Amino acid sequence: MSGNMNLTRAKFDDVMVPNYAPSAVIPVRGEGSRVWDQKGKEFIDFAGGIAVNCLGHCHPALVGALKKQGEKLWHLSNVMTNEPALELATKLTASTFADKVYFANSGAEANEAALKLVRRYALDNHGAEKDQIIAFEKAFHGRTFFTVTVGGQAAYSDGFGPKPQSIKHLPFNDIAALEAEISDKTCAIMLEPIQGEGGIIDADPEFLAAVRRLADKHNALVVFDEVQTGVGRTGELYAYMHTEIVPDVLTTAKALGGGFPIAAMLTTTDIAKHLKIGTHGSTYGGNPLACAVGNAVLDVVNTEETLQGVKRREQMLRDGLAAINDKYQVFSEIRGKGLLIGGVLNEKYQGRSRDFLVASVAEGLMSLIAGANVVRFTPSLVIPEADIIEGLERFERAVAKVVAG
């Protein structure tokens, strides 16, 4: 099965806004953790659509759910609810700290909802002066104007005029900085339990404990952005489950639809009541098609078998990368959790993560980067072990080429 050869990479430059610079490879078909391009070349997928394709490509349970729902109902609007949405919300609340769910279509939208909620909660309970949101340097929370401003990378938020105010960025994992900044004007602290785009940086347990303690002391809410870490990626359903603390609000997207756009914001009854009728909404949020797929995703992912399998695959990936590194000495450390893994380039290869990505594609491996110094791997949670082995062999050949120059 080959692609339409008139639809080339050059066509992208003709018809698409130039905010992306995609690779020359145009995939046309995927199955499991393998993908084929227009010319029939096969790739092993260690990228997973940036931690989205949690069950690989064309997983039978997801294809089945989509086909079945596709012949029933696609869209109703939120003037009415629907069965798949009620079922998915029931699963999410039963499996987490949360009592209430708001559905959206993307991580940015879930985070936008969370940020509006924490501001409204503070306004209703404490008054207008309690509006400060504390976030962290190198964070990534989406591309809407509010979320990109809360994200800690000025390059993404500068150049669009005046930004939303009362947002303070602190160094990640710096308890002293947080203690110095937080006050009774703080309405929320927002963070990723593992910073994804920022370089696969784990939150220290002591830091998370301080976030919770200081938030409680100052009547602020804790928001966990689990867009990338959620839905089994770390070996628990959500990454907060590895920790001693529980957030007040959690956002989830990416893997929740296994490739179909869906997101959710989870919170408690007491906090949720501040988004009363008319305060927020989404045309497509909670549509039956997306929720049917989300239900199928959770039925597969939220099982002992899948979650234990993530931990086993993590060890294989870590061992394989360590063996490659013993030979070629390119990484200073391998960090992350579950199947969200970052290889941090050492002094000799600073700024060259893209070189490893390009070399990998040439060897038939799809991988990612997380900034200029980190090679990122986010494969399917159920990637066959044979594909891990073969993918690592391809990566080793790519590393050898970069090292050889």
Word description of this protein:
- The protein starts with 8 loop residues before the first helix and ends with a helix.
- It folds into 2 domains: 9-58 and 304-404, Aspartate Aminotransferase, domain 1, CATH 3.90.1150.10; 73-301, Aspartate Aminotransferase, domain 2 (3-Layer(aba) Sandwich).
- It contains 14 helices and 17 strands.
- A hairpin with a 2-residue loop joins strand 13 and strand 14 (340-345).
- By secondary structure, the chain is of the alpha/beta class.
- The model has no long low-confidence stretch (mean pLDDT 97).
- The strands form 4 sheets. Strands 4-12-11-10-7-5-6 form a 7-stranded mixed beta sheet, sandwiched between helices. A 4-stranded mixed beta sheet has the order 1-2-3-15. It has a 4-stranded antiparallel beta sheet with strand order 13-14-17-16.
- Helix 3 runs antiparallel to helix 11, helix 4 (83-95) packs parallel to helix 11 (288-301) and helix 13 (353-362) packs across helix 14 (385-404).
Pick out its properties.
405 residues; 2 domains; 17 strands; single chain; 7-stranded mixed sheet; Aspartate Aminotransferase, domain 2; 4-stranded mixed sheet; alpha/beta; Aspartate Aminotransferase, domain 1
